[in-house]
Amino acid sequence: MKQKIAILTDSSSSIYRVNHDYDNIFMIDLPCIIGDEIYTDFMKNKDEPFYQALGKTDLVPKTSQPSISETMEKFEYIKSLGFSHIIYLPISKELSGTYLNGHASKDSVEGIEVEIVDTKTTASILCAMAVEAARLAKDGFLVKEIIQKILAMRKRSVYYVTVNDLTFLVRNGRLSNAKSIIAKIFRIKPVIILNDEGKLVSIAPVRTYMGAIRELVNKVAKEFNPDTGVLHISYTGITEDLKYIKSLIDEALPNSKIEIYTIPSTILAHLGLTAIALGYIHY
After folding, report:
1. Which of 2.40.37.10, 3.40.50.720, 3.40.50.12780, 3.30.1180.10 is the CATH number of 157-282?
2. Digit-coded pLDDT (tens) for 223-232
């Protein structure tokens, strides 16, 4: 029996910002919350409402995983479209309970096979994985084959990020208390990696934000193969930062293929509005 395979990811992937022609890609929202306001339905609303609200508030934003009922409804909806299988590619289980939520939901849905992958990543890397999985499904690859290829793709990808303002990372508990206190005293900017375990880990303290951006490029330049890879820049709309990192890339990695993304609201809630990320994925 031929497998009709759907690819499901979540809004942390920023898939809603990408133009594609695949009718087998679906997304579930991870709501962002500021006070009593909930920001969701990112496919329709995109990131602008949350970005604008974040720039006007002193409140600490939060994020939420979808409920089990919402996840089940998404599975049922995809089944109603005639799909026989779902490959669910959620945000790293180290960053959210979405992965475990998927497992709690899948056994309650009959008539469709659901495979849930610990992607150990998020943001634009997760987006690229979802698009590639959709392409493979359209090309007739089986579920097991697609998952194998996506896991191999995961191992050939890296995502680095830095922030100019540590407030959000500290207040959301994304840095240990000792490190955050030291960082605030010395105004250090952390270079953070989304590591092999799917955790955000600070790997290098840098004195200035521009220096931290240079360090992102330096690290990627040592690892990236322009012949097989694509660079991902994710930013928050600050054009000066984008121009600066692109100038560094042009010097260190000329003629590399670059894709530019907006940091999705789900990730922005933990990083703040002064952040920039540089990653890559090898195909």
Report:
1. 3.30.1180.10
2. 999 999 999 9
